[in-house]
Hints:
- The chain has three domains: 1-19 and 103-238, ATP-grasp fold, B domain (D-amino Acid Aminotransferase, Chain A, domain 1); 21-101, ATP-grasp fold, A domain (Dna Ligase, domain 1, 2-Layer Sandwich), CATH 3.30.1490.20; 240-388, Succinyl-CoA synthetase domains (Rossmann fold), CATH 3.40.50.
- It is elongated, with a radius of gyration of 26 Å.
- Strand 16 (313-320), helix 11 (325-338) and strand 17 form a beta-alpha-beta unit.
- Strands 7, 8, 9, 10, 11 and 12 form a six-stranded antiparallel sheet that branches. A four-stranded antiparallel sheet has the order 1-6-2-3, with helices on one face.
- The protein has helices spanning 5-13, 28-38, 66-74, 133-139, 157-166, 174-190, 227-230, 240-247, 266-278, 295-306, 325-338, 354-363, 374-397, and strands at 22-25, 43-47, 60-63, 80-81, 91-92, 96-100, 104-115, 120-126, 144-148, 193-204, 209-211, 215-218, 251-254, 259-263, 285-288, 313-320, 345-351, 368-371.
- Helices cover 37% and strands 24% of the residues.
- By secondary structure, the chain is an alpha+beta fold.
- The structure holds adenosine-5'-diphosphate (ADP) and magnesium ion.
Amino acid sequence: MDIHEYQAKEVLSNFGVAIPQGALAYSPEQAAYRAREMGGDKWIVKAQVHAGGRGKAGGVKLCSSDSEILEATNNMFGQRLVTHQTGPEGKGIYRVYVEAAVPIDREIYLGLVLDRSSQRVMIVASSEGGMEIEEISESRPDSIVRSTVEPAVGLQDFQAREIAFALGVEPALTQQMVRTLQGCYRAFTELDATMVEINPLVVTGDNRVLALDAKMTFDDNALFRHPNIAELRDKSQEDPRESRASDRGLSYVGLDGNIGCIVNGAGLAMATMDTIKLAGGEPANFLDIGGGATPERVAKAFRLVTSDTNVQAILVNIFAGINRCDWVAEGVVQALRENPVEVPVVVRLAGTNVEEGQKILAQSGLPLIRATTLNEAAERVVAAWNSDLDQNTKMRAV
Ligand code: ADP
Ligand code: MG
């Protein structure tokens, strides 16, 4: 789960990371009021969306009066901000953060990620802040400092000092750097984050080390341990298809193709997507309905998959190990009787009680296309989608 910049800043500041003064606003008037309340004569108004690259996309504006704040925020609220991280549909702006503008001496990149090969938290830093890390690794790979943390002892002060030296931070600021690094590391581990990124971390003209931007991502499977973090979820920033799925306990990732997939088990769901592509189709989604695959879950999965208007054919691929194919078949039949779908549906069942399952599908009278192997299923769903397309084109031609 992602959170907003202003939320990440609040979380990190509770762990000792220094941030500029700032306040949240839900309207242009409130933004101007927040700036007056804060005092000063220059403010940065920042669109709160779950994506980076806002500066280049017009989502970060420097303002020096009430009227400038009103104008900048009027152009933000209700709009969708398109950055290189959002995809062409962008993300809706419903909140803005008003921050005191700080004089920047230098910008540093700081990120904490889980490094899977060493199975440790890795700190990635660069003296070339402000740019995205992908850009830095292209143009200035030599400026990147990497340091993995030994979990048994946690981040040691000497290790944090080494990072500060490697970045060329002035000795007088080392203590502030150590405090920032320690704060990020503790927030990362104590809150089950999967990513913390401060870009830029700046040294100000008056020698303070401040986080000017902040991004945090959390492990969804650990959110139950952190109700305060779980509360920060903002569904307006999520793909509505994915929000609906996670509310129903299904694991769904929306994609751009038109063949909907309903599968039990993440590995099988991946294999199903691959096989569809091999057969010349494009999957519309990843969907793991879990091991249970009860009729209710199958019905929910159908509703979810068909709510994507791009879906023009559906492949149901169930392997019944603990489950039973006859139950799953009943689930499919029940789901389709209650909510008939208008696109071709291919069902492939394998495992326990597969014959009974096939019989239930065959006797249902529903226009289901059956398949035995995964290859066959993928070929049939792609063929069904193609012929459906032909029919539509023919209809349009008439
Ligand atoms: P994004 O990464 O989404 O573009 P940032 O929060 O990093 O958004 O802001 C973009 C740039 O705006 C920063 O790199 C920094 O140069 C400038 N900036 C952001 N906040 C402030 C601030 N409070 N004072 C001065 N400059 C800022
Ligand atoms: Mg940034």
